[in-house]
C-alpha cells in the first residue's frame, strides 16, 4: 500500500496545473497524517535525485511541483525556443496585476472578460 500511495501522490503532483499543497493531497487521498505525506514526498525526491532524473520535485509557492532540472535548461530551451517577448494577452494580464496587486485570478478573469490561465502561466515561467 505504501508504494501505491507514493505513486498516487506522484501522479497528483504531476497532474496538478499549479503547485499542489500538502493539505490538498491529504484531502484527496484521505490521509490524515501530514507527516506520512511528507515522508512519501521525501522518498520521491530522493528517488528522482538518486537516478539523476531530468525532473526534480520541488516545494514552490506553498506546494509541490515537478520541474526540469535547472542544469538541463539549455536543452529544454532548444525544444521550446527562447521567446523573450510577451504576447498582448500576457502584457494585459501583467498590467492588471501590477496596477491592482494583490489580486486573484478570478478578478483578473473578470477584468479581462476571458480566462487568464494561459497568460498567467507564461508570466510565471518568465
What does this entry show, briefly?
Helices cover 61% and strands 10% of the residues.
Question: What does the model show?
Answer:
- The protein has 2 domains: 2-70, Winged helix-like DNA-binding domain superfamily/Winged helix DNA-binding domain (Arc Repressor Mutant, subunit A, Orthogonal Bundle), CATH 1.10.10.10; 88-125, Winged helix-like DNA-binding domain superfamily/Winged helix DNA-binding domain (Arc Repressor Mutant, subunit A), CATH 1.10.10.
- Helices cover 61% and strands 10% of the residues.
- It has helices at residues 2-15, 22-29, 34-50, 73-80, 88-100, 105-112, 117-125; strands spanning 55-60, 63-68.
- Strands 1-2 form a two-stranded antiparallel sheet.
- The longest helix has 17 residues, at 34-50.
- The radius of gyration is 17 Å and the shape is flat.
